[in-house]
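Help needed: design a sequence for this.
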């Protein structure tokens, strides 16, 4: 009996330590998390965008996106030039992905406004107004090709006025 106690302690410590290791989620875990977000966690499914889907709203959305979202999602919404996007857990998703594009407009606005816990997606409530959030949704529906806008200046090393020389 005295020999089994230390052995049990060693086994328990081993299980605890291996259970605390961070690993990438498997396909089943990813699918379950996506389904839960789509159908349980993220609200606003039936909310309709009051802004028109036109070039003016698209331009406004790109500008608002450029002020708030590019540090994590890149200029194109597809993480171009964002050095940490793939290494976060969960990784920063490409906003052009099927998983993101299947959200309704209302759900996208809800995510922008409220964020997603425990991911790194922050809430913009009190930072962006409703029109800015809705215009970002329009921009998300019309993202440019990946890499076509370059990388955010914050990561490129360019100074703010470099393009005006």
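Sure. Designed sequence:
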């Amino acid at each position: 009996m005295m020999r089994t106690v230390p052995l049990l302690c060693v086994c328990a410590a081993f299980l605890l330590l291996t259970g605390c290791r961070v690993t990438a989620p498997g396909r089943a875990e990813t699918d379950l998390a996506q389904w839960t977000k789509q159908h349980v966690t993220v609200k606003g499914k039936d909310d309709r965008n009051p802004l028109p889907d036109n070039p003016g709203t698209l331009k406004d959305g790109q500008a608002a996106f450029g002020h708030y979202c590019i540090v994590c999602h890149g200029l194109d919404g597809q993480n171009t030039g964002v050095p940490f996007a793939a290494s976060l857990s969960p990784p920063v998703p490409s906003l052009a992905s099927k998983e993101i594009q299947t959200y309704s407009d209302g759900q996208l606005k809800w995510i922008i406004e409220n964020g997603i816990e425990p991911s790194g997606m922050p809430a913009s409530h009190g930072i962006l107004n409703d029109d800015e959030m809705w215009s970002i949704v329009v921009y998300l529906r019309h993202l440019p090709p990946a890499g076509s806008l370059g990388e955010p200046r914050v990561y490129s090393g360019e100074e703010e006025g470099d393009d005006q020389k």
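The mean pLDDT is 85.
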